[in-house]
Amino acid sequence: MDRRTSIKWVLVASAVWPMAAQRGGYAATAPVARGYGTDPDLGKVYHPGEVWPLTLTASQKRLAKVLADIIIPADAHSPSASAVGVVEFIDEWVSAPYPANQIDRPVVLNGLAWMDAEAMHRFRKAFADLELTQQHRICDDICDPSRATPGRRDATRFFALYRDLTAGGFYSSPLGRKDLGYIGNVPLERFDGPPPELLRKLNLA
Fold first, then answer.
1. Would you give per-residue pLDDT tens digits along the chain (205 residues)?
2. How far apart are alpha carbons 180 and 134 in whole angstroms?
3. Residue 128 covered by a domain
4. Which of 14, 45, 103, 109 sits most deeply, having the most CB atoms within 10 A of its CB?
5. Which of 34, 8, 6 is nearest to 177 (CA)?
6. Is position 94 within any domain?
């Protein structure tokens, strides 16, 4: 199974994991916005940062881009995660003032801080400045909870959440939906129902 197929399966079994504060982490205070605000003007085009202040700094975005593209790199069929706006999606996600987003916010911010701290500890460089093989060595140590050492379990929870957000942002984009083979939201002249072979496979025929 290739990496992209694996990521598609991750979407099915995604989970949100809280994470304790990490050493030297970025500030992870919740957004100051209260409640849900007023209804948006559906006739207006909103630009990033207009609905609520965004969170990620330039260096955090750079790290976020590298990590997202490790999780979903470009292939022969589709571009990489960052090319379809996944970093912007994650920035909006951790900046939103809703309860679920505020739970994820410190997980992502502290997780990004851990990635840089671990890269500096091992290789004396920021994560985004490492060679790809070095980046993969760090990711390989936190991508599987069953192999995580006690000191890296929080980082493993961060990676699981970040992988889910990356996959969610990618596969909800137009190019990501095309990569999935999703054909919804398309007007049809007629609809003949599910394919017979699918119904037989599901024991519904």
1. 555 555 554 454 443 333 333 334 444 555 555 555 667 788 888 888 888 899 999 999 999 999 999 999 999 888 999 999 999 999 999 999 999 999 999 999 999 999 999 999 999 999 999 999 999 999 999 999 888 888 899 999 999 999 999 999 999 998 888 888 777 777 888 888 888 998 999 998 8
2. 30
3. yes
4. 109
5. 8
6. yes
Domain range for 8 is 3-18+47-201
Using CA atoms, how far residue 205 sits from 148, 190, 192, 195, 202, in Å, is 45, 21, 14, 10, 8
- The Cα–Cα gap between 74 and 91 comes to 21
Name the token pair of 86.
Answer: 């996944």
Rg (CA), the chain: 19
pTM: 0.74
| Structure-token pair, residue 177 | 């939906």
CA distance linking residue 182 with residue 200, whole number of Å:
21
Number of domains in the chain: 1
Q: What is the DSSP string of 91-160?
A: HHHHH--SHHHHHHHHHHHHHHHHHHHHHHHHHSS-GGGS-HHHHHHHHHHHS-GGG--GGGHHHHHHHH
* 35: Cβ contacts below 8 Å, ≥ 6 apart: 97
Note the Cα 17 to chain centre separation in Å: 13
